[in-house]
Design brief:
The protein is of the alpha+beta class. 26% of the residues lie in helices and 20% in strands. Bound molecules: benzoic acid and fe (iii) ion (FE).
Length: 301
């Protein structure tokens, strides 16, 4: 039988070896004053070394990884964050999001923010059309913002942004779409309600002309996200929720490139054929509709 590996703390002056690499390197961080930083860095060293040993990483593979990360950093600018995109396709963003926003089945679940919330949404009146001249299936979005006990939150901010019916965001087509197209910042009324008029978005590919695209291609993964509308909902004294509503029936709901789909966020967008209701809500007939009851948690002290 193999001897158990020696996991005792490294002694002062102990030299680096394959068998004891974790203990020797961890010991070099033993005097880190911040206990949280010490815990994080020592765990990182342990997992990194175990990974290198697990795959028996070659020198050439290590060099490829360094070149890949260098190029990923080179692609980052004020308007592009290739490292976050890499974290997204590795599922790391969703894991951090999920660990830090555990839902009890009552609170609205969160998902990734994504890179297209890069411009401020224009403040708009309740009921406004956010889609300008964009063509697509007209859609009435209606919702409420409440606390976990169902108490309405008047004056809550509801920031929305979405792709168009071809799957493009305004910032991706500056020559075709105004910068505030398919975006809006709404304030809930006295009953905590919000509503606005838009079009149903389409699924779309995440940016794949950089290192993330190279990874997806090399691993035979597609770059697509299912159709969704982004929401960032905030209210004084409450925890801000960054989330999406996903369009039921959209392609890629079961294979989102960034793992953002949660069952509780998928909604049917049924078609309403009712001329009176259309006229009352300023919609053409027929129109699609969706409802979103957002439930916020109290902010911790
Ligand atoms: C988005 O939904 O806008 C998005 C999220 C993560 C990566 C790329 C795009
Ligand atoms: Fe999106």
């Amino acid at each position: 039988m193999d001897d158990e590996p020696d996991r005792t703390a490294a002694k002062a002056g102990e030299l680096f070896s394959e068998a004891r690499s974790v203990e020797v390197v961890a010991a070099s961080f033993a005097s880190t004053p911040d206990p949280r930083l010490r815990r994080v860095i020592v765990s990182l060293v342990r997992h990194l070394h175990e990974f290198i040993k697990d795959v028996q990483l070659t020198r050439a593979e290590w060099e490829t990884a360094i070149r890949y990360l260098t190029e990923t950093g080179r692609l980052c600018t004020d308007t592009r964050q290739e490292f976050i995109l890499l974290s997204d396709v590795l599922g790391a963003s969703m894991l951090v999001e999920t660990i830090n926003n555990r839902s009890d089945g009552v609170l609205t679940e969160t998902t990734v923010e994504g890179p297209f919330h890069m411009v401020d949404s224009p403040p708009r009146e309740l009921g406004a059309r956010i889609c300008g001249a964009a063509e697509g299936d007209p859609c009435l979005v209606e919702g409420t913002v409440t606390d976990a006990h169902g108490r309405p939150l008047p004056g809550a901010s509801v920031d929305v942004w979405q792709a168009d019916a071809d799957g493009s965001y305004d910032v991706q087509q500056p020559d075709l779409a105004a910068e505030d197209n398919l975006r809006g910042l709404f304030t809930t009324d006295e009953q905590g309600r919000f509503w606005f008029r838009t079009i149903v978005p389409r699924y779309y590919p995440i940016p794949s002309d950089g290192t993330v695209g190279t990874l997806l291609q090399a691993t035979s993964r597609h770059p697509n996200r299912p159709a969704h509308i982004h929401f960032e909902v905030s209210a004084p004294g409450m925890r801000t929720v960054t989330t999406h509503l996903f369009v039921d029936g959209s392609p890629y709901l079961d294979s989102d490139a960034v793992f953002g789909v949660k069952e509780s966020l998928v909604r049917e967008f049924p078609t309403i054929d009712d001329p009176a209701r259309a006229a009352e809500s300023g919609m053409p007939n027929p129109f699609r509709t969706v409802e979103f009851a957002v439930v916020l948690d109290r902010a911790s002290a």
